[in-house]
Structure formats: C-alpha cells, structure tokens
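quick q for whoever's on today - can somebody do inverse folding on this one?? i tried earlier but teh output was garbage lol. tokens:
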C-alpha cells in the first residue's frame, strides 16, 4: 500500500484538509516535522490542502494506481495560496510538480505590478500591514488573476482548468496531468521558504516543461534509412501515407506485467520526422514493448507492439483506439511470403470527418479527434466515440473497449510494417 509523507519545513504548525485520505479528517503537521498517511491498496484519489487563516490554499492532488497502473500527481493553486508546496513520487525527482518558491515569486510579481494591475486584482491578493503578500484568493473567482499568476508560475502548477469534458484547456496546465512511473509513495513538502524536498536535488529539480525534459533520440527521414536496406534488423518500417509532414513518437512502457502494462505518457524513447508519403526504417531494441503514435498528446491512435515476446520470440502488435483516434493506421508483419501477404491489423478509412459531434473532441493542439473510449485523467469514457468505432472499424481490427477480440498481428522476424494515414 502506498504512503503519503508530508513534511512541514516551516517554523509553525501547518493545518491540512485531507480529502480522500486520512478518513477525510484534518491533519496538523508540527513545525519542522513529518507525518505519514496510509493510502488504500486500490485506486484512490484525493487531495491534501493547506489552510491559511481559515482559507483553502495550495493543494497536492493524488491518484494512486490510476490509468495504466501509474500514479497521477500535481499541485494546484486554483483555489488559492499562502505557502509553498511540492509533490513527487518517492525517489524520483523527475516526477516533481509545484513551484517550491511560489509565494516568493508571487511577492516579486506583485511588487513589480502597475497600480492598474493591482486595482484589477483587488480582493484577490491579501497583504499584511507592511504590504507583504501573505495570501492569494481563488484564481477561479478572479479571471484577471489567472494571467497574473501565469506570468511567474506557468507550467509549474495548475493555474486554470486543464482539458476536461471536451475543452482543450491550457497546454501548460494539461502538462501537470502527466503520469508518474508506476505506483510509489508520494512525498509532499510544505514550506514558507523553499519547498524543495530535502533530498539534495536542488531548486531546479522540479518538473520542467516537456520540451526541456524530452531527451529523445531523433531521426529525420533519409535515403540511408530506406526499409529495404535494413533487412534482418529489429524495428519498424514506418510509412507516412498522409498528405502532411508528421513526427512520430515511440514510447516504451514503464513496466510490463501479465496482460498489464504501465503506459508511458511523457518520456518517449525516440521520434521520427516523415514528409508526406515518405518511409524509413526505425531500429528498436528487442526489449521494446510499447507504442508509436502521431505527436505526443492524446487523444491519439496507438500502434501497440512488442519486438520480441518471451514465449515465441516473435513480434506481436495491434491497433488501439481506447485512448482516442486521430486517424487511421495499420500494422502488418514483414515475414510473409511474398512480403505483405500476412494479416493486417487496423484500418485505412477516415472515421473522423463524418463521426457524430458527440464523438469528437478538439485536442489541445486544435486537432479534431475521436474521444477516448475508456476515459482517462482528462475525461470519462466517450460512449458516442465507442459506438461509432464499433460500427466503422470493429473490435476485431482495433481495440475499442476491453482487452480481447482484437487480432494479434505477429512477425517472426521481429519487424513490422506500420502505416499512418
């Protein structure tokens, strides 16, 4: 069962509201002390909310064992602030969320603000008798406060409302919803000063924007990587049959179990740029077990595969639409005789253009897709999308709902041909 470690680095006791944990009872952590909460051993969601002068402030939001067997953690300042707080999975600073110096940065921004800005924010920023900012009110109640807070904390904490119920949300807020790595203990650190955990990681260890942490092996299409010139190698013959250039990202699962896997949403292994109608071979380790998709965000069509199964040492793959659909894709083994004669998984038709309006969502990049048929941290299952895909594609060709009934495409030479349309 995972635990929640809450450290109060301030010189005073700090009260927290506990929603979903601690039997929903308030918790006060003594000055310079630590408290431990036990979480259930099943999926559980809740929040630990700091209280300042009777007002809710910064909060750590947690879902243990969520989608794909991963934790989802974030820090939110939507309802206010009065101190600094961070959260991360124990031992993994890459998962850290929150601004460890939020209040200090707020005070600096307030000190530089024009009188007009201060007038606009009247009733949302509270100061002591010396003019020092001591508390911030709910962002959700003061629309102009959101843009002010984004000037110093964008991408570090939830400021507005992320993608939800068809709304694309703000990309910086959506980034706060990225998955952790499996299920681990959660470490929450509160402070009036620096809320960086005392683990030696330093101030810059909080989770950086995706563009900064994405250390990805990247390929450009070239004649030197034509599929026919890499016979016998393990990997994917990747084809872009669409009419526009696209970058494809390969995600290796965080962990794999018996019929289960920890889906990776934020650390792609490599990426490939392909011009329209272009192709190239993408080498992969035989241990790869994950997916390739267009871009890095969902909803998206997933081409799922492993390069070498432990039982028969062949590659196995399929198409999944459970996390949405941004276009057609197919997967086929390359060991047929003649080449291309084996079974094909997936589909080639456009299933988005004429789909019912209720089945469609606009992704944060503005692309219209079909919604997730199983739901995730952004929204629940889109039943209209599921029913449309059952009709237009069918469970035999792609996973739409459930984990059975879809063709397993195999390739004895540990290599697939993957086509995106």
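ok took a stab at it. sequence:
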């Amino acid at each position: 069962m995972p635990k929640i470690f809450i450290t109060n680095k301030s010189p005073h006791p700090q009260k927290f509201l506990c929603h979903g944990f601690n039997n929903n009872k308030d918790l006060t952590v003594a000055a310079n002390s630590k408290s431990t909460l036990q979480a259930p051993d099943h999926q559980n969601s809740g929040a630990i909310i700091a209280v300042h002068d009777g007002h809710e402030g910064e909060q750590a939001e947690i879902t243990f064992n969520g989608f794909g067997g991963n934790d989802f953690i974030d820090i939110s300042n939507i309802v206010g602030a009065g101190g600094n707080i961070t959260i991360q999975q124990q031992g993994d600073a890459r998962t850290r969320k929150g601004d460890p110096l939020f209040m200090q940065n707020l005070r600096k921004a307030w000190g530089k603000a024009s009188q007009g800005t201060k007038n606009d924010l009247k009733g949302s920023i509270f100061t002591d008798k010396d003019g020092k900012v001591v508390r911030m009110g709910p962002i959700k109640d003061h629309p102009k406060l959101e843009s002010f807070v984004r000037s110093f904390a964008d991408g570090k904490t939830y400021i507005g409302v992320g993608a939800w119920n068809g709304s694309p949300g703000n990309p910086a807020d959506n980034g706060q919803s990225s998955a952790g790595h499996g299920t681990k203990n959660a470490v929450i650190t509160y402070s009036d000063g620096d809320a960086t955990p005392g683990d030696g990681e330093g101030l810059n260890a909080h989770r950086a924007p995706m563009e900064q942490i994405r250390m990805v092996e990247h390929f450009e299409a070239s004649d030197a990587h034509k599929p026919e010139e890499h016979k016998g190698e393990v990997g994917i013959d990747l084809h872009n049959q669409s009419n526009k250039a696209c970058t494809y990202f390969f995600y290796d699962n965080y962990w794999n179990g018996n019929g289960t896997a920890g889906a990776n949403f934020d650390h792609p292994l490599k990426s490939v740029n392909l011009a329209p109608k272009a192709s190239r071979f993408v080498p992969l380790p035989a241990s790869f077990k994950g997916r390739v998709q267009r871009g890095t965000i969902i909803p998206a069509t997933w081409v799922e595969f492993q390069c070498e199964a432990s039982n028969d040492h062949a590659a196995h793959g399929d198409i999944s639409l459970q996390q949405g659909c941004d276009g057609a894709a197919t997967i086929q083994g390359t060991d047929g005789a003649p080449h291309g004669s084996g079974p094909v998984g997936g589909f080639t038709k456009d299933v988005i253009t004429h789909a019912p309006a209720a089945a469609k969502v606009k992704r944060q990049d503005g692309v219209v897709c079909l919604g997730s048929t199983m739901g995730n941290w952004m929204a629940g299952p889109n039943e209209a999308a599921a029913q449309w895909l059952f009709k237009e594609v069918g469970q035999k060709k792609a996973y739409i709902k459930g984990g059975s009934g879809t063709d397993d495409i195999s390739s004895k030479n540990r290599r697939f041909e993957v086509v995106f349309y």
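fwiw The first helix runs from residue 102 to 112. also Residues 109 and 151 are 8 Å apart (CA to CA). so keep that in mind when u check it
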